[in-house]
Amino acid sequence: QVQLVESGGGLVQAGGSLRLSCAASGRTFSRNAMGWFRRAPGKEREFVSSISWSGGSTYYADSVKGRFTISRDNANNAVYLQMNSLKPEDTAVYYCAARNIFTSATASEVVEYPYWGQGTQVTVSS
To answer: How many other CB atoms are found less than 10 A from the CB of residue 48?
Structure first.
């Protein structure tokens, strides 16, 4: 089991930056691939980024590639999402999610992640 708690959301102007954090509890964290998803108002939850359990492989949605960076600190059971050059269309609730242990990070579907945080709101003003 993995419990996840996101933080770091807030209100920022377009072009600004935010860093989201996800604190994980559970003995298996260092063996779980992790992901970030988001849900904009009126839209389905969508994949943003994922990282392998070792941190050696990362994946991004085309919409955030070059602007967002995912990273993890297995010693401190944390995953981060650095978001730069934010746009109003990045406004959403952002969720941290975990896969089962030793599964691939090349997963972009909601159903592939059994563990979820409660989400943190990111609002980008124009």
So the answer is: 25
